[in-house]
Amino acid sequence: MEKYASFKHMAPKALFGNGVRATGNARHRYLSREAARECMVLLKNTGGALPLKGGKVALFGKNSYELIAGGGGSGTVTTEYKASLYDGFSDKEKEGKISLFKPLSRFYLDKADAFRQTAGEKVKYIYAKEPTPPKKLISDAAKACAAAVITIGRYSREGGDREASPGDYYLGEDEIKLINAVCESFSDITVVLNIGSAICCEELEKNKNIKAILCAWQPGMEGGYAAADILCGDADPCGKLVDTFAKDYKYYPSAADYKKSPLYMDYTEDIYVGYRYFETIPKAADKVRYEFGFGLSYTTFDIKGVLAGEEDGYITVAATVTNTGKYDGKEVVQLYLSAPQGKLGKPARELCAFKKTKLLRPGESQALALRFKLSDFASFDDLGKIKKSAYVLEKGEYSLYLGASVRKCEKLGFSVKLSKDIICEKLTSRCRPFELKRRMLSDGKYEKLPTGKVTFGFDKHKPLGGRAPKDTLYFEDVTEDHINDFIAQMTDEELIHMVSGTPNRTYTDDSCFPGLARLHVPDVPTADGPAGLRIEPRFGNVFTTSFPVATAQACSWDPELVERIGAAGAIEARENNVGIFLTPALNIHRDPLCGRNFEYYSEDPVIAGTMAAAQVRGIQSQKTAASAKHFAVNSKEDDRFHCDSRVSERALREIYLKGFEICVKTAQPWTVMSSYNVLNGVHTSESRDLLQGILRGEWGFSGMVTSDWNGPDRNQVNEVRAGNDVRMSRGFPEKLAEAMASGELKRADFEHCVKRTLLTYLKLYND
User: Fold this and answer.
1) Which domains, and CATH codes, for the chain?
2) Rounded distance between C-alpha atoms, residue 435 and residue 278, angstroms
3) Could you tell me where the DSSP H helices lie in 199-241?
4) What SS3 class is residue 288?
5) HEC string of 12-30?
6) Residue 120: which residues within 8 A CB-CB, separation 6 or more?
């Protein structure tokens, strides 16, 4: 078992020579800072208030001094430090670029110390009310300072959703009190949003004293340094929104349904999610504060589409971007497709390709090529209006829009005109809804959907046909060619053991994928990682690198950067003897209140799939397995174990599965994690249609499927039959043995699950 010896060790090992650790090293920390700069989005900048012009700055808000680097739960990362905006400005002060009003900073630092002495570390300072400094201290700051900066923070975590209430989606009374107090003395105020998901920005946007708003997201451990870089003009803000910010929560189409019932959610808005809703449905456009793709810069750009053409079903657009302003900067070029409404109806625009420029100096230009396959944006006809269960390109004109956001774009002279409907792919009806009664159409009206009784079945598996060797074959000697024979020598009890996680706990606090001592199959440790390797502090002082959360990473619009983050995280996983890195998470931002949105990328499946695929490529370049999760339609945290996501087949395929499809087809993650929730009446881990029919049958996924950890009310017999290969963190061997004895489960059912698991193990990094 020496070949897989690293998986046996609890203590981390140094990958580099002379005992130098990769985990949390300076190179990875700088990558975190670089990524944070690339993802921050400038939402407002009246009169060129930013970058700051030097002089003394008054720094308000507890989160100016206590950075929220990321969210809670599986996204938690234990780091050596978290650099706040105060830390970042302190560095700029040393460089002579600004200076801080120290009495105000002392007020906040003393407040934080007093809170910890009173409440202890068990109660996070991020939950404390926002203190308002004494009136005289604010007026003294105004006399001494040219500008004020206020940071507003939001924290959420796995296992619970946010609220459409003051202090969460809306500004709290304590925050409004602070803003009003500062506005009495300052007329030049910048607000920094240290958030993981959208909040209501109306009061900030309409306040004339607030000249600038920077959305810094939850930016990782170096976030304060990165924010200071941008505020002081050492870096240009070049992030773009990957979600629509509405003027009020009630304007999101999911708002009326999101918390209606603990048992189900009806996805009645169908494919009209995010900008697809706001840019298509009549009168919805006026309800938007910041559109999808929006983001300001310190400089200006000119984007021109110079050439477009079609060949072999692919459309290519050549664009030229010129920096027409006075600062160095980067621009994101976005290409949108507008399809004919036809019989099925379509969003007004859909993102189909994007590219980010290099850093352009004033007057400098760059040529970019944007390419996509037209059939990838065909409509799925789930009711048979043209061809049932088929992807269809309807006849008519397909137009293209090129620009810097979904609204700030120009129609190109080139278009594709189809004289007849084209059937791109004929499939089978899978995961259909039985209790979703209606769905929205592109004109805002609704159509009825057929209902019925939930039905599902399972495939019959044929035996692998391997022959047990005369002499015991150990796993360290196995190749893919021998895997069937290796499995043939396993007893029924050993097969049952191999479909459940082992309770052995590692210092990552996540269970191991199953091993088998007799045949030298290793227990393979796992760890969470949406924003960096998660190692519980109680297992030792192993400090890893905290990167910007997934939403922030997506706002960089830079897949190459995300791939580098994936590789860095995987290097740290390897060094700490982790074989399965439980990331990326790419569920769709259907509603801003989802408590786990910070772990997910976007409301758009092209962004989500592209970024997830980049993350997977980076992780697996280090011989560590990525695990794309949570498959699928895990759109809320409250009641997540039993809430039924009722969604049409069309919306399922075009929105909620599309990102997974892009990730699987372009990056082939070695593992996929099924989700906790129910999907159209069936738990996802028990869904043959989802796991065998779509994931493996249609997309060609060749890896293994794991359940999410410790989901209650699951039938592991059904999971095995459906192709959910491993139940984590442990299973029910007695029930599986009973099912095998009764004939409900066959040995062949286990063999196929175990084979996929072992083939994954063969790909992993080992010593």
Assistant:
1) 40-235 (3.40.50.1700), 266-429 (2.60.40.10), 456-763 (3.20.20.300)
2) 26
3) 202-206, 223-231
4) strand
5) CCCCCHHHCCCCCCHHHHH
6) none
Residues 6+ apart with CB under 8 A from 282: 443, 444
139-155 burial string, b = 16+ CB within 10 Å, else e? ebbbebbebbbbbbbbb
The number of C-alpha atoms within 13 Å of 708 and in the hemisphere containing its C-beta is 24
Q: Which of 476, 549, 467 is nearest to 515 (CA)?
A: 476
Q: How confident is the model at residue 4 (pLDDT cuts 50, 70, 90)?
A: confident
CA dihedral of residues 311, 317, 318, 322 (deg, nearest 10): 180
**DSSP percent split of the chain into helix, strand, coil, nearest 5:** 30, 20, 45
Task: Report residue 639 as tokens.
Answer: 């009641």
Phi-psi region of 509 (alpha: psi -120 to 50; beta: other; left: phi over 0): left
Query: Residue 523: which of 306, 728, 319 has the closest Cα?
Result: 728
Angle formed at CA 693 by CA 688 and CA 696, multiple of 5 degrees: 110
Each residue of 490-533: pLDDT tens digit?
A: 999 999 999 998 766 555 667 889 999 999 999 999 999 889 99
- The values of phi and psi at residue 151, to 5°, are -105, 130
Output the CA torsion 694→695→699→703 (10° steps): -160
Q: Which tens digit of pLDDT belongs to each residue from 400-419?
A: 999 999 999 999 999 999 99
CA distances for 71 relative to 67, 106, 618, 632, 663, angstroms: 11, 27, 22, 21, 24
Residue type, 92: K
Take residue 415 and report the two structure tokens written for it. 């278009």
Query: Are residues 139 and 185 in contact, defined by beta-carbon separation less than 8 angstroms?
Result: yes
Nearest residue to 492 via CA among 756, 744, 736: 736
Residue 634 has pLDDT above 90, yes or no: yes
Q: What does the alpha-carbon distance between residue 103 and residue 530 come to, in Å, rounded to a whole number?
A: 38
Catalytic residues: 708
Q: Are 534 and 515 in contact (CB under 8 A)?
A: no
CA angle 154, 159, 165 (to 5 degrees): 40
- What is the residue type of 130? E
For the record, the structure tokens of 286 come out as: 């006026």
Helix (H) or strand (E) holding 423: strand 422-426
Reported as a single tens digit per residue, the pLDDT across 361-401 is 999 999 999 999 999 999 999 999 999 999 999 999 999 99
Q: Return d(Cα 636, Cα 519) in angstroms, integer.
A: 41
Angle subtended at Cα 747 by Cα 741 and Cα 748, rounded to the nearest 5 degrees: 145
